[in-house]
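Working notes for the structural subgroup meeting. M.R. asked for a predicted model of this chain before we commit to crystallization trials. I am recording the input and output together here so anyone reviewing the notebook later can reproduce the run.

Input as submitted:
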Amino acid sequence: MALYEHVVITRPDISPAQVETFIEEISTFLKEKGATVGKTEYWGLRSLAYPIKKQRKGHYSLINIDGPAEAVHELERRQRISEDVMRYMTVRVETLSDEPSPVLSRKERRPRD
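Returned structure, recorded in token form:
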């Protein structure tokens, strides 16, 4: 099976709890399709580089997937028609890391006021 990193940006007007539920639904769907979900990370409500659908912010999430390509294609098809998803990107990788992503590592290094 192939290894993938999947980043999804959801609408800013839904709550972080709803985003977590959305990610759990994705994980359940992938497990039904024979994939294994590694770590999942919620990166928070972040500013976008450019407006998408008149929105300037979005909830970012990362999912590590070990599974067949058919499962990932079906996931992407479902996210194309979902009203909650603004953008998504899936990248095939050689290895999956269990360490925190650079986005979360940068947040931890930032000094607090």
